């Protein structure tokens, strides 16, 4: 009798042979497609340009069209063959990682289903491997042995799950194999988690947990909100979800229609291998700052560092808070609507230093249209009228002396290039002059025409300031703890900043929204899925704006309200704000409480930093207790850091030294650079590098490291209750080892942690 191991190895050998056959066949297809493509390309030579009559032009166009179509088809064939080659290459390395045995109701047959990164069949419907995203594969992640159900596009199916088996396969050999009744065996998960951190995140496809699977496969919700503790696999699950959606809606959506907003560029870099590893293309990834900068290229927007290091207090903070509310969003909507009646701010149109269409004229045109026009139509109609006026101006302008001078001054080259393709034969000098004069005027007017087309006659800066000044009429300031005087002072600050071309984060989104309203923008309608990571750092205003900007997208939001570094208490009300934006019957809220990143000891310690961290369960993986050491000064802290680095290095662990600010990170660098190999991460646009790094806390979001050294967790650095979440985020970056140093006195936020959860180093 063969052992299960032998039977499985025999089957694996058979599958590998078939994969190899498919690779050979695919190579032939690829060569064929390549040579077909070359044939078509050389076919271009046969398309002669027959100009002259309309008929022959048409014929030529048809020829070109046909060639293009053929090229496109061949290109497609080649792309799909080369895509297939990639898939097969991946399958050859690791054909599958699990097997489930299923018995359909009413059938005597028990069918084994092997699950891998992609489907593979050796004939119609004879699947040797099922894609992990196929409906049936869900059973592997979801269910224990016995009766099970799974969702298919045609409805819910039921079956009996007879066996669950997991494999580790390396170089065509089964290294381990075990049967389990658990959803995904703890052993496999433990193995996965014991690994070392690296500069790139890995996929979790073989060990997806049941509650994560729910997030990954959800197709019903317009809003899927995932609240989860640090390290609970939100990011991992959501990347698997993108891969799932691209599979589920293949042919209907592509990776370019999926957008992910992430906390910083560093993080983008960290996760950019996961989808390719799963055989999918990356979605569009950007930070909110990048999104805004792309839309407001002329303004200097407040950066992450500026925002973090300039913590506002008093009235300034209240103003910033107000600007983030949905109240403010609605006030802006009302204001924009009122612009249909009056108060649009425009710029005069100038030509050669002279005002040719005044502000009043433009405003008159703007308000000359029917009262029931909306802002978008109004702008469009104004634009058309202005363009006509400019067109009408040409004849008039041609008679001006400057035009005559310009014609006289034309050199031979200028004359030639001005005439371009125009005929050079003129009936008279007068006709020649008129032709040239018209061309010159049109050329001079071109930038103005372009400006009108781009809405440059709307003075958006002025309009925005006018809005700010109108706010006291739109919002009850006193109810928001602000006096009119305080608000006015704030407006002055914004105006001063705008004069320098600067815009703060609090004003950035309202500014974009106002412009969109005036333009009648309908948002980016081809985007189908929007993911927002670290949702706790977004204001309700931003969320409402994103919903407006991507009106046809379904949203997945991920966040941990315990890590609200930027917005803090705002996070609490987020949920109720969302209920206003999304139909509650189409919203789903999922809570992940199990954490995977850190050892039990680190999780218990981090959890104790939070006053209400009850909803966090550590995964049972043992490690050392975090250590805390109070030192006398920076010098001693540097010494202790060096020692710890040596120990970590000996244990093969990479370390991140996390500071509060960038300035501190630079200090640490100066103290350590001579004796150890360290890299400071200064901006989010840098790359993560292997080896020890020094990083300010606001850039460490979403990342993880084998070992973390928290630099100077003293009472002086982290004193306020509002820094609790920041301290929690830092501590929860560590996978295996957490070391905390503080100069003078330990931060009260950490001093409150029960003594048995850490060791004190002397
Ligand atoms: N099902 C799983 N199988 C294996 N590893 C997992 C699983 N879920 C999560 N992990 C691991 O746990 C760690 C944390 O995951 P991830 O970064 O996705 O969490 P997160 O919730 O986004 O964390 P944070 O909010 O702190 O950024 C990662 O190393 C990830 O690979």
UniProtKB/TrEMBL annotation:
Q: Which residues form the UvrD-like helicase ATP-binding domain?
A: 207-599
Does the keyword field hold Nucleotide-binding? yes
Name the positions where ATP binds: 228-235
Q: Which GO terms describe its cellular component?
A: cytosol
| Keywords of the record | ATP-binding, Helicase, Hydrolase, Nucleotide-binding
Choose any GO biological process term that the UniProt entry carries and state it: recombinational repair
Tell me one Pfam family matched here. UvrD_C_2
Look up the domain of life of the source: Bacteria
Gene Ontology terms for molecular function: 3'-5' DNA helicase activity; ATP binding; DNA binding; hydrolase activity
What NCBIfam families does the annotation carry? HelD_BACSU
Q: What is this protein called?
A: ATP-dependent DNA helicase
Q: What organism is recorded for this protein? A: Weissella muntiaci
Tell me the lineage of the source organism. Answer: Bacteria, Bacillati, Bacillota, Bacilli, Lactobacillales
């Amino acid at each position: 009798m063969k052992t299960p191991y032998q039977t499985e190895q025999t089957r694996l050998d058979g599958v590998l042979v078939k994969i190899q056959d498919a690779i050979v066949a695919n190579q032939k297809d690829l060569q064929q497609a390549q040579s077909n493509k070359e044939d078509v390309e050389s076919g271009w030579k046969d398309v002669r340009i027959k100009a002259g009559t309309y008929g022959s032009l048409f014929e030529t166009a048809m020829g070109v069209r046909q060639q293009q179509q053929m090229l496109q088809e061949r290109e497609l064939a080649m792309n799909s063959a080369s895509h297939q080659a990639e898939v097969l290459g991946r399958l050859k390395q690791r054909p599958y990682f699990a097997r489930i045995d299923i018995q359909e109701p009413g059938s005597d047959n028990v069918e084994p289903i092997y699950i891998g990164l992609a489907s593979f069949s050796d004939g119609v419907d004879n699947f040797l491997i099922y894609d992990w995203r196929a409906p049936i594969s869900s059973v592997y992640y979801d269910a224990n042995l016995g009766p099970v159900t799974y969702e298919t596009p045609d409805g819910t199916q039921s079956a009996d799950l007879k066996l669950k088996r997991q494999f580790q396969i390396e170089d065509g050999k089964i290294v381990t194999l075990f049967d389990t009744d658990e959803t995904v065996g703890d052993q496999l998960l433990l193995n996965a988690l014991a690994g070392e951190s690296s500069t790139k995140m890995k996929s979790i496809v073989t060990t997806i947990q049941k509650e994560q699977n729910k997030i990954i496969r959800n197709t019903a919700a317009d809003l899927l909100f995932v609240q989860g503790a640090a390290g609970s696999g939100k990011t991992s699950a959501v990347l698997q979800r993108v891969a799932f959606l691209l599979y589920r809606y293949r042919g209907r959506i592509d990776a370019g229609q999926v957008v992910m907003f992430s906390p910083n560029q560093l993080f983008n870099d960290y996760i950019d291998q996961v989808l390719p590893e799963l055989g999918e293309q990356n979605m569009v990834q950007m930070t909110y700052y990048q999104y805004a900068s792309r839309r407001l290229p002329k303004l200097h927007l407040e950066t992450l560092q500026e925002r973090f290091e300039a913590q506002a207090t008093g009235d300034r903070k209240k103003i910033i808070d107000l600007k983030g509310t949905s109240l403010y969003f609605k006030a802006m909507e009302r204001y924009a609507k009122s612009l249909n009646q009056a108060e649009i701010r425009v710029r005069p149109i100038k030509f050669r230093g002279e005002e040719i269409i005044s502000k009043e004229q433009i405003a008159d045109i703007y308000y000359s249209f029917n009262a029931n026009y909306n802002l978008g139509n109004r702008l469009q109609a104004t634009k058309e009228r202005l363009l006509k006026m400019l067109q009408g101006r040409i004849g008039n302008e041609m008679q001006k002396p400057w035009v005559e001078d310009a014609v006289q001054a034309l050199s031979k080259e200028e004359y030639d290039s001005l005439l371009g393709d125009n005929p050079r034969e003129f009936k008279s000098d007068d006709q020649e002059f008129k032709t040239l004069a018209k061309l010159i005027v049109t050329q001079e007017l071109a930038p103005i025409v372009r400006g009108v087309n781009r809405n440059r006659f709307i003075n958006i800066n002025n309009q925005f300031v006018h809005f700010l000044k109108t706010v006291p009429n739109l919002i009850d300031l006193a109810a928001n703890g602000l006096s009119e005087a305080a608000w006015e002072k704030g407006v002055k600050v914004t105006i001063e900043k705008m004069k320098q071309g600067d815009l703060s984060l609090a004003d950035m989104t309202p500014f974009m929204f106002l412009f969109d309203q005036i333009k009648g923008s309908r948002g980016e309608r081809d985007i189908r899925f929007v993911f927002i990571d670290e949702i706790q750092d977004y204001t309700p205003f931003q969320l409402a704006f994103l919903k407006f900007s991507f009106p046809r997208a379904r949203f997945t939001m991920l966040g941990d309200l315990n890590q609200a570094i930027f917005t803090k208490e705002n996070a609490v009300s987020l949920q109720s704000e969302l209920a206003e934006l999304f139909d509650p019957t189409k919203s789903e809220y999922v809570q992940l409480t199990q954490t995977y990143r850190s050892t039990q000891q680190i999780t218990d310690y981090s959890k104790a930093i939070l006053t209400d961290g009850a909803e966090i369960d550590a995964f049972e993986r043992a490690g050392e207790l975090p250590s805390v050491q109070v030192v006398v000064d920076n010098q001693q802290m540097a010494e202790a850091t060096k020692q710890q680095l040596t120990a970590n290095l000996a244990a093969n662990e990479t370390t991140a030294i996390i500071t509060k600010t960038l300035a501190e990170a630079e200090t640490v660098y100066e103290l350590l650079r001579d004796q150890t190999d360290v890299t400071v991460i200064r901006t989010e646009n840098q790359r993560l590098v292997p080896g020890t790094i020094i990083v300010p806390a606001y850039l460490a979001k979403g990342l993880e490291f084998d070992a973390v050294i928290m630099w100077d967790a003293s009472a002086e650095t982290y004193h306020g209750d509002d820094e609790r979440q920041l301290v929690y985020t830092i501590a929860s970056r560590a996978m295996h080892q957490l070391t905390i140093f503080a100069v003078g006195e330990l931060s009260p936020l950490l001093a409150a942690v029960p003594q048995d959860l850490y060791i004190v180093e002397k």
